[in-house]
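Practice problem: predict the structure.
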Amino acid sequence: MTALLHVLATLVVAPYAALAVGFLAVGRVAASKGLWEILDVVFQSFVALMSWGIYAFAAVILLIAATGCISAARVAASIALAALAGLSLLILLFTARLRWTWANCCSWCRASRRSPSGSGAP
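Answer:
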């Protein structure tokens, strides 16, 4: 029964970990400047994910799920699953906070460029 619960917990955490990887890729694209650099970063991220990233992600998820089925290694697998969930949560929270700050900065900069006084009022 505990092995089944561990596998279910792994299946619940997997989409959040994939979303965190996606946020990291989008963050790299957003940090690049210029059209050619954006296209270069998108292409590099695509190549990295398609070559080994998807296989490595699936292998880690399957390894955590399979290790949770072994009673002697269940504690280690639970720690690994908790670490994966915690790291995914930190990535999602940190990049969301960073994007919110960046959006506010850009809207303020655009408003200050439009107003002749530079006070930020449109």
